[in-house]
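Structure first, sequence second, as always.
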């Protein structure tokens, strides 16, 4: 299992223990890191990442000098909706940034891509299409496709935004909402985008990526 999936699985297991099974109640202190990592069968690094995510979501709270505790609001009845709203808000922010950044990245990549980089973009786009048509998870393939475009810009600072793109792609797919509609939008928009790349049409690539961002946000209700 890759690191991102293991982190998400650990997040879900801890959340279930707290909010669903009630094994840890609001106000309870979590076991020490070594013990909890052994109990869950994960590394301490993976555990820390999951704990950070749970803290960011308001399920846990860190009390300086005392440890990590279950937050008072971490109950199944009132937390599910709040978490959904937080996820939606974060996705909206991520996709708004992508809508500003990625169309220009597509334009630059179309202009600057070396022949092998163009081939890599097209190959990775075809891999996304194959995943969708065969019903397989496309998260990794989709991340790789967008990363190939950013790499082809030959812009160091755009490269530094790759983690933002990866996080946005992963969260959009992992929520499971509107999955079928998103998949169809991706098929349609990626096909148009790759056609512009094949033709070396910079303006077309920019507009196709902008349209893709708009379509994705509309399907997820983020507009």
């Amino acid at each position: 299992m890759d690191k991102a999936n293991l982190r998400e699985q650990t997040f879900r297991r801890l959340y279930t223990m707290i909010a669903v099974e009630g094994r840890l109640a609001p106000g309870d202190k979590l076991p020490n890191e070594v013990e909890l990592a052994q109990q869950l069968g994960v590394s301490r690094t993976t555990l820390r990442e999951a704990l950070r995510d749970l803290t960011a979501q308001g399920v846990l709270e860190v009390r300086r000098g005392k440890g990590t505790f279950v937050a008072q609001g971490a109950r199944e009845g009132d937390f599910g909706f709040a978490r959904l709203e937080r996820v939606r808000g974060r996705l909206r922010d991520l996709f708004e940034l992508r809508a500003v950044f990625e169309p220009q990245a597509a334009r630059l990549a179309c202009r600057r891509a070396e022949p092998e980089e163009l081939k890599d973009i097209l190959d990775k786009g075809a891999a996304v299409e194959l995943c969708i048509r065969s019903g397989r998870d496309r998260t990794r393939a989709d991340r790789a496709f967008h990363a190939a475009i950013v790499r082809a810009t030959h812009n160091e600072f755009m490269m530094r935004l790759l983690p933002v793109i990866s996080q946005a792609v992963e969260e959009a797919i992992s929520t499971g909402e509107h999955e079928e509609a998103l998949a169809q939008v991706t098929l349609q928009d990626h096909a148009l985008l790759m056609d512009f790349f094949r033709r070396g049409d910079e303006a077309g690539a920019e507009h196709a990526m902008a349209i893709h961002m708009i379509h994705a946000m509309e399907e997820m209700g983020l507009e």
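Margin note: The first strand starts at residue 60 and ends at 63.
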